[in-house]
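Final report, closing paragraph on structural work. Over the funding period we assembled a curated collection of sequence-structure pairs, and we close with a single example.
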Amino acid sequence: VQLVESGGNSVQAGGTLNLSCAVSGYRFRANCMGWFRQAPGKEREGVAISWASGGGQTFYGDSVKGRFAISQDNAKNTVYLEMSSLESEDTALYYCLLYDRHWHIYWGQGTQVTVS
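Its predicted structure, as stored:
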């Protein structure tokens, strides 16, 4: 299973950015897909998580609620993160994750988002 993030960039505060995570090597329905981020000197934190069970619940970190949105295109095996009203505190390495149907977790390599 491979997860490849893209879309990271440098952007000014208040701007928007869209991240993509392409999944390959996995053809079943994932239990969970989402995004985490890690800023220098800080722990990795959950940004947006989409659960397949329970009617497709979605979790957003408190700091991104109302600004970020997660979505999936199952036909393309891709999960997206739309980020708006970006702040300098959003600067981090953003990682995509997938929990497969056996609850094994897979991570991407990350894509850098810098907000100035």
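The first strand starts at residue 2 and ends at 6. The chain has a mean pLDDT of 93. We thank the funder for supporting this effort.
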